Task: structure prediction
Amino acid sequence: MAEKLQAPRGTFDVLPDNAALRTQLIDQIAGPLFAQAGYGRIDTPIFEDTALFARGVGESTDIVSKEMYTFTDQGDRSQTLRPEGTAPVCRAYVEHGMHKLPQPVKLWYEGPFFRQEAPQAGRYRQFFQIGAEALGSDDPALDAESIVLAARLLDGAGVTGARLRIGSLGSGPERAAYSAALKTYLRAHESELSHDVAARIDLNPLRAFDAKHEGTQAVMANAPRLLESISAEDREHFDEVLALLDAANVEYEVDTTLVRGLDYYTRTLFEFTSDKLGAQSGVGGGGRYDGLVEMLGGPATPGIGWAAGIERILAAAEAEAPQAQHPAAYIALDEGADRAAAFALLLKLREVHGLAAQIELAGRSMKGQLKAASRVGAKSLVIFGGGRGQYDAAVKNLTTGEQIELDGLTAGDYYDRIAERVLAGIKV
Ligand code: ATP
Ligand code: MG
Result:
């Protein structure tokens, strides 16, 4: 026997029930929310120049240093399967001169992302995110609007009890001064830190707040806090964001230790978690990235955005698959039935009458066909007769059991008479 082939480690197939849940989340819940808020859909390529992520996400991050799927193409260019969506959206903003449009420009996306991490529950190598980015304004109301959208999306998806933590990373000289002070503090405690954190004191000292290592956590409990040293202007910005969240009835906790895995964040930073998810508790998160567009070669442009994991939203919501569409008619074929006539009726029901209709395709006995019709939840059964002198076709209303027999397969209005019976059957 040939070797069994399986989906690659950390990936999964989306089967119809789950696909229906995803479509519902995106088309019925997220799409209308974004449209109402003036967000337009954007789709960027699945792969990009590696340099985009190296620059836009940051060399010191886990994503860039160890999680990217990078390959060299036939033109000897280094390409990377996108691990996140913000850098590509900013690249597109610059490439298409969107700074000339009325600002802010609001964009949302949804699709697969790739990170070579250790697969476990809620953590995959190909996963799906839904995300929103708003570029061209640093108004705190834009931060609040963005966060409220994420909160409403989780509500709409049925994620109850999600926790929102929010902080501010500040900006400018205060942030640089804080970073220097934190490095000094970390160096003074270097022997108590995990190797990983100790090795990255210079590169990315903030990540020490994120460490799972006990010794590091003990050191960080007394570390200076960024939120206490941000500028008055950044503090005012942050307070305004909080006031607007209060006005929107969005509950949050201010967290002075919040850091996230991407280098580009400034000012507002937030994360949604759910205790229904076990170790991988992050449902979504984001923040402001006022320096990113410029770093990618565009004009100085502030921005704010977030991304949420679709698998984690669905897991936290424990949503049930929406009911599959019940066909209005199931066309059964008796022995010797006029198959061409049956097929023509099938298409007519779908294309002229706009009905969901199915036809027997597995050569089952009449009893088997009846069973199949009820299994798919058909409302009526159209039986094409075998021309044994009884009737040409019969329409049985599967709700009431009533059966009408029709003759005259050659008559011009024959299909319409069947369709009329089928339509009557749906109304019951
Ligand atoms: P985590 O802390 O779980 O590693 P993260 O901080 O790396 O998450 P982001 O880069 O902010 O996550 O991505 C936003 C969201 O995308 C996360 O909150 C999570 O819901 C989802 N996500 C991230 N990585 C994965 C993954 N490997 N598998 C499934 N979902 C993921
Ligand atoms: Mg991660």
